[in-house]
Specification:
Blueprint lengths: L4 E7 L7 E8 L7 E10 L2 H9 L10 E6 L1 E6 L16 E5 L3 E3 L6 H4 L3 H14 L15 H7 L5 E4 L4 H6 L4 E4 L5 H8 L6 E4 L4 H10 L5 E5 L5 H4 L5 E5 L22 H13 L1 H6 L13 E2 L11
Parallel strand pairs: 8-9, 10-11, 11-12
Antiparallel strand pairs: 1-2, 3-4, 3-6, 3-13, 4-5, 5-7
Helix pairs in contact: 3-9, 6-7
C-alpha cells in the first residue's frame, strides 16, 4: 500500500520553545526540481535549537541536515521551520529536497558520516567563496565538509583558533598553524604569525570577544570579515579598513529568509546560483574523496531507515 502519511518533528508554536512529534503528517508532494528522499539519518546543529526559541512555526517540520535514499544514497540541506512551506524540514521520515543542492554520497561513506555534512558544507561555501570571494577549489577532493580542507584545496593557507586539545585534529585537516583562542593575545599572535598580512577571516563564534580577536588578527592593510551571526557594531566600527558582513545559510535556496529584523533576507538569485554550482556542478568531484576527511567530529547517528527515527532534541 502506498505511503501517504509520515511522522516528523514540528514546531509547537511561537513562544513555546518546543517541538512536538506529529504522527499524521501528509507525505510531501513532488514538484519540479525536487527529490522525495527517505530519511535514514539526521543531525542537530545550533540553528535547530535557535529556531525552537525564536522562530517557532506551529506545524512546520524542523531540521536542516539529513542523508537518505531516493534510489541513490544522497545527502542534502533541508529548509527547516519554513513559515510558508511547512513540510520542508529534515526531521521527518521523508523530505522534499531541492535536487540541485543535493549530493550523491560517495562509495564507502556511511549515513553516519554523511548526515553531518550538508549545512556545514553549504555554510563553508557561502561564507568562504561567495561572501568572501575566495577562489573556488577545483580538484578531485576539493569541496569537502570542513572549512579548513576546503581552503587547502583552494591553494590557501588556513590558520585555526581552537583549544590545544584540538590542534592535532585541525592540523590533520590542513591548518598551517593553530592558536589558543582563550589567550588574550590570540589575535595579535595570529597577526604576528601572518606577518601582518592576514586579509580574510571567517568567525564561527561571533560574540563581541571573538570579533575583537578577529579584528586584531587582520593585517594593517585591512581585509574582509564574515560571521555566521549578527555581530557587534561597536567592534565593527573600530576599524574602517575591514569590511564586515554575515550570512544566513537558508539564503542558499534563493527564496529569501522570512525572519524578523536583521535575520531576514531578500530573494537572491545570486545565492541560489552559487549554491547550485557549488553542490551540483562540482558535486561528484567534491565528494569522491571526502569520505574519511571528516572524522573526529564526535558525531552520533539518529537512524531512521526503518521508519523509527529517534526524533529527540536536547
Amino acid at each position: 500500500m502506498a505511503i501517504t502519511k509520515m511522522r516528523g518533528l514540528v514546531g509547537a508554536g511561537a513562544g513555546s520553545g518546543k517541538y512536538r512529534l506529529d504522527s499524521d503528517l501528509a507525505l510531501p508532494a513532488l514538484r519540479p526540481g525536487t527529490l522525495l528522499v527517505r530519511v535514514h539519518a539526521v543531525a542537530l546543529n545550533p540553528g535547530d535549537a535557535k529556531m525552537a526559541d525564536y522562530s517557532n512555526v506551529a506545524g512546520a517540520t524542523t531540521g536542516h541536515d539529513f542523508a537518505g535514499t531516493v534510489g541513490d544514497r544522497v545527502l542534502a540541506v533541508a529548509y527547516g521551520m519554513h513559515a510558508d512551506d511547512l513540510l520542508r524540514g529534515a526531521f521527518s521520515e521523508y523530505v522534499l529536497a531541492t535536487a540541485d543542492v543535493a549530493c550523491k554520497m560517495p562509495e564507502g561513506m556511511g549515513f553516519d558520516e554523511a548526515y553531518a555534512m550538508p549545512t556545514a558544507l553549504a555554510t563553508a561555501g557561502l561564507a568562504l567563496f561567495h561572501e568572501l570571494g575566495l577562489p573556488l577549489p577545483g580538484t578531485q577532493e576539493a569541496r569537502s565538509i570542513a572549512g579548513t580542507p576546503v581552503l587547502v584545496s583552494a591553494g590557501l593557507n588556513p590558520l585555526a583558533t581552537c583549544s590545544p586539545a584540538n590542534n592535532a585534529l585541525c592540523e590533520s585537516f590542513g591548518a598551517a598553524a593553530c592558536f589558543e583562542y582563550r589567550l588574550p593575545t590570540c589575535g595579535t599572535d595570529v597577526r604576528t604569525y601572518a606577518n601582518d598580512a592576514l586579509a580574510y577571516v571567517l568567525d564561527c563564534n561571533t560574540d563581541a570577544g571573538a570579533m575583537k580577536m578577529c579584528y586584531e588578527a587582520i593585517g594593517s592593510a585591512g581585509g574582509r570579515y564574515v560571521a555566521l551571526e549578527a555581530f557587534s557594531t561597536t567592534v565593527q566600527y573600530t576599524r574602517r579598513d575591514v569590511v564586515a558582513s554575515w550570512i544566513m545559510a537558508p539564503s542558499m535556496f534563493g527564496e529569501g529568509v522570512n525572519l524578523p529584523g536583521a535575520y531576514g533576507r531578500p530573494v537572491s538569485s545570486e545565492d541560489r546560483e552559487f549554491s547550485r554550482q557549488f553542490f551540483w556542478d562540482g558535486g561528484e568531484k567534491r565528494n569522491q574523496e571526502s569520505s574519511g576527511r571528516d572524522q573526529g567530529r564526535g558525531t552520533g547517528c539518529a537512524d531512521g531507515g526503518d521508519r523509527r527515527s529517534a526524533f529527540g532534541l536536547r
